[in-house]
Design a protein that fits this description.
Length: 157
């Protein structure tokens, strides 16, 4: 189990929380749930509508799949679940642990309360989504098509 100090240090590496003062990140660290997954564990299932949440990877790597096709890989400092967190729509991808993964999880209710209190978190979310849209746009420029689920991950591999 990670200490609050360890969680703060790890969360400061996450783009969504990078610009927040340390005491605000400490507040988030206190309420974030630490969860561990073994390799090959399914963390999220595409199409599911239950348990909207934000998961931030603090250790390990995950595979992002859409319709059974690998579209991306995410690692420490990346988050997933932000789309469903905002609009409560079904999950756009399946997330599978490639290595042992440790995540810090924030429920939808907690995250939305944080957004109301801290503009910096909203700005971080916007930056993350725009970055992912730019990757999708570059894919479209290169291939002439938008790959299914290409907005769900930014790491091109």
């Amino acid at each position: 189990m990670l200490s609050i100090v360890d969680k703060v240090l790890l969360l400061k590496r996450v783009e969504l929380f990078r610009d927040l003062p340390g005491e605000e990140v400490a507040r988030i660290a206190e309420i974030a749930e630490e969860i561990r997954y073994p390799p090959e564990a399914v963390i999220l299932e595409q199409g599911s509508t239950d348990d909207c949440r934000l998961d931030c990877i603090i250790q390990g790597e995950v595979l992002v799949q859409v319709d059974g096709r690998r579209v991306s890989r995410l690692h420490r400092g990346d988050c997933f679940g932000e789309l469903s967190l905002i609009d409560s729509e079904p999950r756009s991808a399946t997330i599978i642990a490639e290595t042992e993964v440790v995540i810090l999880r924030l429920s939808r209710e907690i995250f939305l309360n944080l957004l109301e209190d801290r503009f910096e978190i909203a700005r971080g979310l916007i930056v993350t989504l725009v970055r992912r849209l730019r990757v999708t746009y570059r894919q479209f420029q290169t291939t002439g098509e938008i790959l299914p689920g290409s907005v769900v991950g930014v790491t091109e591999s």
